[in-house]
């Protein structure tokens, strides 16, 4: 006789942690002690990526929680899916020279509890934010200072047209134009929204801006540049792999 299928194990929502919760069975230890252990250095690649996602999450004012296995990193309150790629010139290990920046994982397989992993890789976000920590000297390095971060924003069609898994910083700059600051990041993300009916103007960039500001008619806007998939592809093909991973032993 065929056994009935077991019902799925559905997780219950977890309450947000504040950091002062005790770890039961470990004397004098709290959640913040675990956080300090797990993420002691924002220069580490994984932690820097999480921090960049946090900055984007804050910039757009999202209240949506981060989902580890989702096909994108950040989601706005109205459902705009954002993928965040982060890198920096300085690493947590000793370097001979600053790293050459390259962003990987532009395409990935999606996953769902019912179907598992998809068969093919794809670009799965509506908007891509490429975040760069710009410090080049450790004495000046402060990852908590948003003035040391620059951001490049591209809509899904431009990244998908690349048809590649990674892109160099030069390629991203060629396609997106000058970087934007944290203060204008939210407006630029909205400007790049490619969804039908969205107010994004990436297909028709503004033609007139205040010189050297990227501001049109007194409003914060993304720089007035035309997104260029061809430039992105050309630059990517010419760039070597970057040095943002630890050297091999």
Description:
The protein is of the alpha+beta class and 249 residues long. It has a domain of 162 residues. The chain has six helices and eight strands; from the N terminus they run H-H-E-E-E-E-E-E-E-H-E-H-H-H. The strands form three sheets. It has a four-stranded mixed β-sheet with strand order 1-2-6-7, sandwiched between helices. Strands 3-8 form a two-stranded antiparallel ribbon. Strand 4 and strand 5 form a beta hairpin. Helix 3 crosses helix 6 and helix 4 runs antiparallel to helix 6. The longest helix is centred in the first third of the chain and has 15 residues. The protein is globular and about 60 Å long. About 9% of the residues have low confidence.
* Structural class category: alpha+beta
Strand order of the largest sheet: 1-2-6-7
* Radius of gyration, in angstroms, nearest whole number: 20 Å
Runs in which pLDDT lies below 50 for 5 or more consecutive residues are: 206-221, 238-243
**Distance linking N and C termini:** 56 Å
Alpha plus pi helix count: 6
Please tell me what the overall shape is: globular
Estimate the mean pLDDT confidence: 84
What is the string of helix and strand elements? Answer: HHEEEEEEEHEHHH
